[in-house]
User: Fold AcrR family transcriptional regulator from Kutzneria buriramensis.
Amino acid sequence: MPRRSQEERTRSTRSALTAAARTLFAERGYAAVSTDEIVRAAGVTRGALYHHYADKQALFRDVFEQVEAEITAEVEAATAGAPDHLAAMAVGVTSYLDICQRPEVLSICLTDAPAVLGWAGWREIEARHGLGVITAMLTSAVAAGLVVAPSVPALAQLVLSAVTEAGVMIANGADRDTVQQALTTLLLGLVAR
Assistant:
């Protein structure tokens, strides 16, 4: 049997750590999970954890980035077949709100990420993922004359905040139809008359 390369061992160890941490963070939240539990669940040593990550927060950052990338890919796939800009926005919102109902997303992305990474760290990752999708959609809608925006980046941040808050509300038990209707009304206010 051929020996695994250092790169394969690194990838395997990091994968085991992120998978174990992701499960534990989703189930109990960042603060309630110790590094000892993570390494035990991953089947690696404490030294391996600290070889790959400076601390638990760095591991959490990697987990959050992974979940955000998956959410972004899922929303982009949902909007890909939309016939026009407005339909893409509607499908994107619906898809995102569905995703926010997953306990893993509520715990890792909506609850722990802002607290663990701080606003700037959270937004840095959001800029590459959710904010990036919203910015692209708004830029396209502005170019098509559907939305008037003095600043797409500022508007995208505000839309992200509204969509994220809607997701948090629904995940915490607010009536889905009521929240989605209110969010849709808000977003339709962006459409040029």
User: Anything to note?
Assistant: Residues 61-189 form a domain with the Tetracycline Repressor; domain 2 fold (CATH 1.10.357.10). Residues 162 and 186 are 9 Å apart (CA to CA).
